[in-house]
Specification:
It comes from Brassica carinata (Ethiopian mustard). One of its GO terms (molecular function) is RNA nuclease activity. It holds the Pfam family NYN. The protein is an alpha/beta fold. The chain has helices at residues 3-12, 32-45, 65-70, 90-104, 128-139, 149-154, and strands at residues 15-20, 52-58, 81-85, 116-120, 143-147. It has a 5-stranded parallel β-sheet, with helices on both faces. The radius of gyration is 16 Å and the shape is globular. The termini are far apart.
Length: 161
């Protein structure tokens, strides 16, 4: 593919990452820019475009270094990673933000899955309502990846599978 055409497509393509930082915590020693770079590097390596925005949901009721350092402070880092309060209703907050993102995002042309979003959370696992909602979004030609950290850690892939 022509590189100029490739860069034009990349401009139109968007990837959103919705990350439950309680189910899948970030390393405490990492800065927001380091976290963003690590996630985007892994996605670009897997052929996602580098126009990526990350929303990370924290339990604002829980005291700790992540909560105290990242919630309620002015954003001082350059990357497109945003830390949001979610408390016990992180799943509802995340779902609302997903709907807003879908509403504001262009859908792909039906032949390819150009608009992608990833969800890192155990909150959607084994819930019929949310499973159906995510399947409906996939049918609308969004490239969707659901990562369930606890399940993936407890049942890692092996060459035998």
């Amino acid at each position: 593919m022509d590189q100029s055409l490739d860069s034009k497509l990349c401009y139109l393509v968007r990837t959103a990452v919705f990350w439950d930082a309680e189910d899948c915590p970030f390393p405490r020693s990492s800065t927001p820019d380091e976290i963003y770079h690590s996630i985007t590097s892994a996605l670009v390596e897997r052929n996602f475009c580098d126009k990526i925005t990350i929303w990370a949901y924290l339990d604002d009721d829980k005291k700790g270094s992540w909560r105290d350092a990242l919630l309620g402070v002015e954003k001082t880092w350059a990357s497109r990673i945003y830390f949001l309060p979610g408390g016990d209703s992180r799943r509802n907050r995340m779902l609302n933000d997903i709907y807003l993102w879908v509403r504001d995002s262009p859908r792909s042309n039906g032949r390819s899955r150009e608009t992608s979003f990833l969800i890192f959370s155990d909150q959607f696992n084994d819930d019929a309502y949310y499973t159906d909602m995510l399947q409906q979004l996939r049918k609308r030609v969004y490239n969707l990846l659901l990562v369930t950290p606890t399940q993936d850690i407890n049942e890692p892939e092996s060459p035998d599978r």
